[in-house]
Amino acid sequence: EAQVTQNPRYLITVTGKKLTVTCSQNMNHEYMSWYRQDPGLGLRQIYYSMNVEVTDKGDVPEGYKVSRKEKRNFPLILESPSPNQTSLYFCASSFSAQGLSYEQYFGPGTRLTVT
Amino acid sequence: AQSVSQHNHHVILSEAASLELGCNYSYGGTVNLFWYVQYPGQHLQLLLKYFSGDPLVKGIKGFEAEFIKSKFSFNLRKPSVQWSDTAEYFCAVNLHSLPNNNDMRFGAGTRLTVKP
């Protein structure tokens, strides 16, 4: 089954404790992206990756890191989480051709609470 | 700055009523347009998309949307809603702009509540 998986689905942590949210897709998509969803703000892009070893900042990259060592995986790293990073996070992937992406497939979401 | 506006924050309808959700974007270049739906507790799923061609596109579950280029709009419609359409709806615009041809912008979302 074609899907995007994220782990963990729920996470409660404390300020400053490094964490990683994993994202994996089995559709051989070139393009992957991370979003955060906050009430009244919709989805805002954190980072995206056009392909292996190619990543770039989205609208709200501060406090986050990513890596793309393999095509299927795109982990999101919070080196020192803060309460304002409490949010619902979605990973997405899409097919990409000639630099253009198509519809994105979303993971189930990770609800992160930072106390 | 490029943006996507969804003017209705919360829409409440009775079953069988007609639905129209507005979406406007501010970008003069080439765009791909999408509507996604998020059912309670679930991830976003694609309802429909527009890349080119006929500006009236049909999606799943009886939804359709019309791209009006002159108005920078991509409104979502359904002639008769059902209780199961209760969800949050997001308009998204993929801007074809260098260096990032994958610049995807989402609206803030419209929460639809359908009363049985």
| Element string of chain B (H = helix, E = strand) | EEEEEEEEEEEE
Ends apart, CA distance between termini of chain B: 40 Å
Low-confidence stretches of chain B: none
Tell me the fraction of residues in β-strands of chain B, as a range: over 45%
**Largest interface, counted by CB within 8 Å of the partner chain's CB:** A-B, 27 and 24 residues
Derived structural class of chain A = mainly beta
Shape of chain A: globular
Task: Describe, in plain words, how this protein is organized in 3D.
Chain A has 115 residues and is mainly beta. Chain A has strands spanning 4-7, 10-13, 19-25, 31-38, 42-51, 54-57, 65-66, 76-78, 87-94, 96-97, 100-101, 105-106, 110-114. Chain A has no helices and 13 strands. In chain A, strands 2, 4, 5, 6, 9, 12 and 13 form a seven-stranded mixed sheet that branches. Chain A has a four-stranded antiparallel sheet with strand order 1-3-8-7, with no helix packed on it. In chain A, strands 10-11 form a two-stranded antiparallel sheet. Chain B is mainly beta. Chain B has no helices and twelve strands. In chain B, strands 2, 5, 6, 10, 11 and 12 form a six-stranded mixed sheet that branches. Chain B has a four-stranded antiparallel sheet with strand order 3-9-8-7, with no helix packed on it. In chain B, strands 1-4 form a two-stranded antiparallel ribbon. In chain B, β8 and β9 (73-78) form a beta hairpin. At the A-B interface, β4, β5, β9, β11 and β12 of A face β5, β6 and β10 of B.
Task: Summarize this structure as a short list of keywords or feature phrases.
heterodimer, A: 115 residues, mainly beta, seven-stranded mixed beta sheet, four-stranded antiparallel beta sheet, 0% helix, 53% strand, globular, B: 116 residues, six-stranded mixed beta sheet, 51% strand
